Amino acid sequence: MIVTANNLLGALPPESRERLLELAREVSFPAGARISEEGHRADRFWVIRTGSVTLDMRVPGRRPAAVETLSHGDLLGWSWLFPPYTWQLGAEALSPVRALEFDAARVRELCDADPVLGRAVALRMAEIISHRLQAARTRLLDLYGPYGSGPMP
């Protein structure tokens, strides 16, 4: 399994990964399908197997603004982990997508029942969120910073 900056499963210890995978089910989305909507209830999450997904945010009076693109191995959705369990971003399939879908309530129950697994999931989720925030910061610097500001060393 490939481990990328946005990968949940590949970064977990094998026994934790297997327990989590027991809760997964295969799903697919056609290109253009809305997978999640900003502000709606976050009751599941996905690990992308094939295809690509754009994360976006609402902009009044305009189409949603794309903020990141996810692909093979990436985690789609982290809002399910934190109350009030509402999506912070929307998501749309850019191409046909196959993914593993996880029921958020069942995963939270598993994490509560198995503190080792729960800690591993929470730490990996924190790493993924940190990476995405840093990527967003770099994009904002590229868009709005002085010429040549780019990423910080």
How far apart lie the N and C ends? 29 Å
Specify the number of helices.
3
Please report the total strand number as a whole number: 8
Q: Which secondary-structure class do the elements indicate?
A: alpha+beta
CATH fold assignment: Jelly Rolls
| Proportion of residues in helical segments | 25-40%
Low-confidence stretches: 1-5
Strand order, sheet with most strands: 1-8-3-6
- When the domains are counted, the total is 1
- The CATH class: Mainly Beta
- Mean of pLDDT: 87
From the alpha-carbon coordinates, what is the Rg to the nearest angstrom?
Answer: 16 Å
State the fourth-level CATH superfamily. Jelly Rolls
Query: Which percent band covers the strand fraction?
Result: 25-35%
Order of helices and strands: HEEEEEEEEHH
Describe the structure.
It is a single chain. This protein has helices at 14-21, 104-113, 115-144, and strands at residues 24-29, 34-36, 44-50, 53-57, 65-70, 75-76, 90-93, 97-103. The strands form 2 sheets. Strands 1-8-3-6 form a 4-stranded antiparallel β-sheet. Strands 2-7-4-5 form a 4-stranded antiparallel β-sheet, with no helix packed on it. The longest helix is centred in the last third of the chain and has 30 residues, at 115-144. A hairpin with a 7-residue loop joins strand 4 and strand 5. It has one domain (9-144): Jelly Rolls, CATH 2.60.120. 25% of the residues are buried. The protein is an alpha+beta fold. It starts with 13 loop residues before the first helix and ends in a 9-residue tail after the last helix. The chain is globular. Residues 8-110 form the Cyclic nucleotide-binding domain. One of its GO terms (molecular function) is DNA-binding transcription factor activity. It holds the Pfam family cNMP_binding.
